[in-house]
Fold this protein.
Amino acid sequence: MKGWWGKVLRINLSENKVSVQKIEAETLVKFIGGRGLAAKILWDELKPGIDPLSPENKLIIAAGPLTGVVGPSTGKLVVAAKSPLTNGYGDGNIGTNASVQLRKAGYDAIVVEGASKKPVYIYIEDDKVDIISAEGLWGRDTFETERLLKEVHGKDVGVLLIGPAGENLVRYATIISQEGRSGGRPGIGAVMGSKKLKAIVIRGTKEIPVADKNEVVKVASEAYREIKNAPAYNFWMRQGTMATIEWSNTNSVLPTFNFREGVFDFYRLIDGYSMEAMKVTQRGCPNCNMICGNVVIDYEKELSELDYENVAMLGSNIGLGHLGKVATLNKLADKYGIDTISLGNVLAFATEASEKKLIDEKIEWGDFKKYKELVEDIAFRRGLGDLLAEGTKRISEKIKGDSWKWAMNVKGLEISAYDCHAAPAMALAYATSPIGAHHKDAWVIAWEVKVGRTTYTKEKVEKVIELQRIRGGIFETLVACRLPWIELGLKLEYYMRLFKAATGIDMTLNDYYKVADRVYALIRAFWVREYGEKWSREMDYPPARWFEEPLTKGPLKGAHLDREKYDTMLSWYYEIRGWDERGIPRKSTLEELGLSDVARELEKYVELSK
């Protein structure tokens, strides 16, 4: 089989055993790779109800048929597990040399099972796999640890690792690579920590098998030229995603003071132009010619890699209008291995809780010194940090009051950096994301701003699903970065041609859509199996704040979501997806998608509609 190796590397840390398992060709064609393969493994192998931080959980590192193959931004892989933050399916993608090295080592995925009694790291060199003591690395930050590992194994290895946050089971700890690349928002780093797994180090020397090498090179070369010739290329190379700060403020979607507002008075002090003035270099993922990692000198004279999400969440959302200080908080999050999006939410939530006297600690908006202390306390679970390490949903359940209304999460995963008081389609995208609130599956906000903010139409629902099929389906299974397509208009046709050149399989856009629908239905089934009869459509609602507390400033002052109209949109969403009014895939839908076995299993936990 071309395009895939058809192999999964299994490592059992409880038994200190390593094995290689074949993947059936039918499974690869049905689920492609990346998220699809990860979801399939987790559905098949996890017992519902397990503790995500127990040895029974499984850590999945999954590539796709385009991972590592020459082509636009193909240096990505997916990390997945049952989430300790949401108790549902959790994943994230990460751009790293480890992606390329995994494929060159001869594997499509790694499954880490069980848990070690003492800290270890895994070293993979092609067919040779060693489990090595990491006791000398435990407690060290991600930057220092990666440098030490590369001193031992060489600068060309790929490294995936955790920092103190993952070790201390912070529920939104991530996996880090290359001093600033981060993936696995729903606490995948904590899953690594629960297994006492500090790092995975990979070196591969094999040639990735493709059906038509010459065609791969031809298509990739054309695509790279298209990217460089795009009208927006030069400005992208200057600011990358940081240009979104100005755009978001202009359109009143910049999260400010825990998503109370959509505009920030000091946005100019943290925008793309401020970043340009501070920028010293850029970093990117393998095989990328439109690199987005803008590196600045932070407030403490250290390097920090910035993008829109971390600046908005650690800037305007906590009232901090100083890019150097924002960069310092971001750098600390990367060093400790903390998701910056959830971190910005948690700090804002704690500030509001302090303001409303629901906690004793005094925290004021924009207090850099206090926030810096709290980031460290969260990473090491000290004092208030121990509670804040649990995420906004669990914190609100503990401090009570009406705090659940402004705990800005969906299903337990904190919302990323777009306010939706006046963006019903984006609110729906957050609410129906397969991992909890995240923008990566359907960044519909830019389109929604163009077509109108106040309407609740079926067209908007159809657009959310279209984007989920492309962004969360095609790109997350191939696995490749979405930015060339989103930001510079690279046609989807290039990815289809690359897929055919790599695998020899010719698929239409509708074929890809069916794969995406299959993966979304499988992930939804995973969630429903975990929650059983407790599952309801309320799980697909955004936070109450957006419904009940209108914006008080900016061009959209007075705007808020309409609950009844949102509910109508949600029903349309279910109808188009072939799910019932509870948001559960119908039996007929699962059968049509080739998931009859999933339907039979799911019927043990809930009654399925026909």
Residues 239-406 form a domain with the Aldehyde Ferredoxin Oxidoreductase Protein, subunit A; domain 2 fold (CATH 1.10.569.10).
